[in-house]
């Protein structure tokens, strides 16, 4: 038999119980056709010698904002590693301003007030930008800071007359004037001045995110939120931009996109007395192919821990009178989740605080009671602060939790400050979820945290913050469990475990070649491993010299 490709002399970890390891893998039509003796004697158009390198199924990030990650790669980087102080942030804005025209926007992202001491202010940004409009997105994406010129572009001259919005917060001075910080839904008061984004810029962002992702061994991901520029996404034509990116050959990562729930709508009668809620043409979860498909519909119910806007059952450790807030009315959430469920959508609800988690679980249970569906496989994105009872309830309802391992090191110190040591023991639980019977995916929430799966796996196993403090160490998982999460678990979260996550006959030929075996190296140095090559559908999409 003549194949498209043969990959020889490798150390394949297949995650297939019947054949857990192999040395040779054959590909035809983008799928695995056999291993070792099953492809003995076969010829192929391409033969790649892996030189004895370890190979794992391709990483699948169940929650990565690919296009946003790419957008940030093209903007001013304000992470603490590049702008470690508030003074350094202002200096970076000043330097960028010097290279721009007098009316051009300055876009930056990645700052964290927990690491630099405070949020930037409009007045200080005015001085740094010299009259240019500025929008700086917080690392969490749940807030941002605008300067006076940016407020003016949005219709609020002198930062006056800025309204309050349900589900958001406008930071003000003693006179009621906006000082720059906008949280949650209030961000749209300024971002509407530059969104929706042009399709060309979205495609460029997707391309940049894809190039970074394949260099990290990512072969599949889920983009959690498109098409709602006022919430998550670049604009109403986001899906068109993803289609363009596939057609133009700049998006090779298999991508599942989540339309934001606010773009779903009541479409009225569809015959036989039935009504429909969703997208035009009856599009819903599952439409598409293995390159690009529509997944769950996403809704963010609350905010973030490090921004103190996640909806909690009781006050934050350092702000005892603050319990955060919901971004949407509870009745609206229950009704809209119910309608989406009735019409066949998988639902992915962002819920970080324990109070928000209860509200989401209530809505899922009510929807299922009214319209029973087998294996709906709804999701709770983050599931960040959860009690034992909530873990059991999630599993009983067949809900998929989607926590992020990399948060432990990158924002873990801020989360401990927000929660206090006792409640932090229930923060971003993983082992408890597995022991209760949940299927655990792997995800990063990039660009909120670094998108490298190897870094995420490192933190899932080691559970240490940037300062070296343990964060819920009892929730650590084994290397095998972490790898399973980033492959099979993430495939399960998108209803794709029948074709992704394992390397066996008939499965998609997606895999990553590593510098060492992550299942046998010292767990404390998994973050030093690198990706030598990435293969999607048997096609090499990244090669750092690993392929002969």
From TrEMBL:
Keywords: Hydrolase. One of its GO terms (molecular function) is hydrolase activity, acting on carbon-nitrogen (but not peptide) bonds. Residues 47-542 form the Amidohydrolase domain. Pfam families: Amidohydro_3 (PF07969). The keyword Hydrolase applies. It comes from the Bacteria. InterPro entries: Amidohydro_3, Metal-dep_hydrolase_composite, Metal_Hydrolase, YtcJ-like. PANTHER family: IMIDAZOLONEPROPIONASE (PTHR22642), PROTEIN LONG AFTER FAR-RED 3 (PTHR22642:SF2). This is Amidohydrolase.
